[in-house]
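quick q for whoever's on today - can somebody do inverse folding on this one?? i tried earlier but teh output was garbage lol. tokens:
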């Protein structure tokens, strides 16, 4: 099996300091928390921004501060979210791509979230994909429902996304696909040959889905974005969630990928500063 890529999603759009004092909100907090998670074994950092009031924000300066802070202090792969909770227009969701992180999230269809419809029209999805392609950013296809895999395949067929594709199955959110082993097996069998996948179980499903993925050869996303509890009634920290995955992977004999190894697995060019080979495509 390939080495295990652990993605940390430290903040997201939902948890507040009232829900858990451990959720990082300011760019400074998000950078510090992400660095701890990277030190614990995460190789990809999935970023959302919050404003001074803690609300989801599409402000470029906030994203820039996080990206600069992380780039200066670690070698992890940075992945900005292009999710719509911080502003739903194309301009709001695309602007941060100008920071040219190595990856960005891309949801390839619409879904009923508990708080409303998460709208991702074909036009918007293709526009974001085109922008990522132009900037050399690899999309992580966020899959809330099986049909979204077809949406991602469609992008590849149209030349709007390069193979190998990378998928993240977000399972267990009310209104989307449930977090069951059968769903995970089904989804992992629907993606194109050569594609990679990870799973983000929402809430209490996070640990179980991660365990299945470790055994199935997939990759894992953890973090307070998807789940604020370590166990029943016990609040988590981002670092502790990563540490647990590293420990579990070790028990199962699956090695954890460094950021450089993760770049190899995901087919990302190696940045020149790392001394790695620079890919030309
Ligand atoms: Zn996210």
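ok took a stab at it. sequence:
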């Amino acid at each position: 099996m390939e080495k295990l890529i652990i993605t940390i999603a430290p903040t997201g759009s939902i948890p507040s300091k009232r829900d858990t004092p451990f959720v990082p909100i300011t760019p400074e907090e998000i950078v510090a928390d992400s660095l701890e998670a990277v030190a614990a074994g995460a190789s990809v950092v999935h970023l959302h921004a919050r404003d001074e009031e803690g609300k989801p924000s599409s402000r470029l300066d906030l994203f820039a501060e996080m990206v600069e802070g992380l780039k200066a202090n670690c070698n992890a792969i940075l992945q900005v979210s292009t999710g719509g909770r911080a502003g739903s227009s194309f301009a709001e969701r695309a602007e941060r791509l100008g920071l040219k992180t190595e990856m960005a999230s891309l949801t390839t269809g619409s879904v009923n979230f508990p708080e409303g419809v998460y709208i991702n029209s074909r036009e918007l999805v293709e526009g974001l994909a085109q922008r990522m392609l132009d900037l050399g950013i690899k999309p992580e296809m966020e899959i809330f429902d099986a049909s979204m895999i077809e949406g991602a395949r469609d992008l590849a067929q149209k030349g709007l996304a390069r193979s190998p594709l990378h998928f993240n199955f977000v399972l267990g959110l009310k209104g989307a696909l449930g977090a069951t082993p059968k769903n995970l097996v089904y989804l992992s069998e629907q993606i194109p040959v050569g594609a990679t996948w990870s799973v983000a179980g929402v809430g209490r499903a996070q640990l179980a889905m991660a365990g299945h993925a470790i055994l199935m050869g997939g990759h894992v996303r953890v973090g307070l974005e998807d789940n604020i509890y370590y166990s029943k009634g016990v609040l988590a920290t981002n670092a502790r969630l990563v540490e647990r995955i590293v420990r579990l992977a070790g028990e199962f004999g699956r090695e954890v990928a460094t950021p450089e190894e993760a770049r190899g697995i995901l087919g990302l060019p190696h940045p020149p500063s790392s001394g790695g080979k620079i890919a030309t495509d």
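fwiw The chain is about 35% helix and 20% strand. also Confidence is low (pLDDT under 50) at residues 274-281. so keep that in mind when u check it
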